[in-house]
Amino acid sequence: MNNRLVKLSAACTIYLSTFLHTQGFSQATQNVSAKQKSDSTLCFVKPNIRITKFYSKDELNKLQKLDLIEIYKSRLAYLIEILPFLSLNPEPGSSFREMSIPETETNISHLEKEMKNKQDFTKSLFETLDDVVPYSEKTNIIWSILYFDEMIKKSMSQSK
To answer: What pTM was estimated for this model as a whole?
Structure first.
């Protein structure tokens, strides 16, 4: 069972990473046209996305399934923000300048498209997750959270 979960998780991670990369899902910090933003605030990764607490397996085991689902979704939200732009600068809120992205009309247009795409994708994904994840085994949700946490920790260490 555990081997099956590892394979499933790896496949889901690869699919999600590839899907996000090909679709270019990202969003800026506000629902304001990127063209109206000042140069210093043009960013693909919103600055207010943070993981402030990592849980141990014992802590997660004590939580109710609905709480686990919210943690699970928060980890996915973080990964959706960070993964597509990990090679540029995984730090939330990094500006175009900090990521060495020229502030051209084309790149600003990409940002506007990404804001809309990510918003639609995330909304749809979370609606689906709200409906189907409650059918998951609690142990599988916990394992997924711990797996996501390892990915997040690695992305955070990359930015330092």
So the answer is: 0.70
